[in-house]
Amino acid sequence: MGKHFGNLARVRHVISYSLSPFEQQAFPNILSHGVPNVGRRFASQVLKVVPPLALGYLIYSWGTQEFERLKRKNPADYEHDQ
């Protein structure tokens, strides 16, 4: 009565390969290859990411300081009020 979930459709020309969990290593060479690879990738991307972020931070901080400066009243405008 109906097909089971794994056999709902017939798929042709698709080949899949798998390796037994008992034959593969979870973290092979993590210290000898993995850590240096992370360092190399980080070093290659630093010059692409840091300058735009630093420029954006400088523009943001300048804009905030300028806003706070312009928000204050000029004391010279109120010297002769009395």
Automatic annotation (TrEMBL):
Predominant location: mitochondrion
Any Gene Ontology CC annotation: mitochondrial inner membrane
One Pfam family in the UniProt entry: UcrQ
Keywords: Electron transport, Membrane, Mitochondrion, Mitochondrion inner membrane, Respiratory chain, Transmembrane, Transmembrane helix, Transport
One annotated GO biological process: pons development
TM region positions: none
Gene3D superfamilies recorded: Cytochrome b-c1 complex subunit 8
Cell compartments where the protein resides: Mitochondrion inner membrane
Topology with respect to the bilayer: Single-pass membrane protein
Family: Belongs to the UQCRQ/QCR8 family.
Summary of subunit composition and partner proteins: Component of the ubiquinol-cytochrome c oxidoreductase (cytochrome b-c1 complex, complex III, CIII), a multisubunit enzyme composed of 11 subunits. The complex is composed of 3 respiratory subunits cytochrome b, cytochrome c1 and Rieske protein UQCRFS1, 2 core protein subunits UQCRC1/QCR1 and UQCRC2/QCR2, and 6 low-molecular weight protein subunits UQCRH/QCR6, UQCRB/QCR7, UQCRQ/QCR8, UQCR10/QCR9, UQCR11/QCR10 and subunit 9, the cleavage product of Rieske protein UQCRFS1.
Role summary: Component of the ubiquinol-cytochrome c oxidoreductase, a multisubunit transmembrane complex that is part of the mitochondrial electron transport chain which drives oxidative phosphorylation. The complex plays an important role in the uptake of multiple carbon sources present in different host niches.
Protein name per Swiss-Prot or TrEMBL: Cytochrome b-c1 complex subunit 8
Source organism of this protein record: Serinus canaria (Island canary)
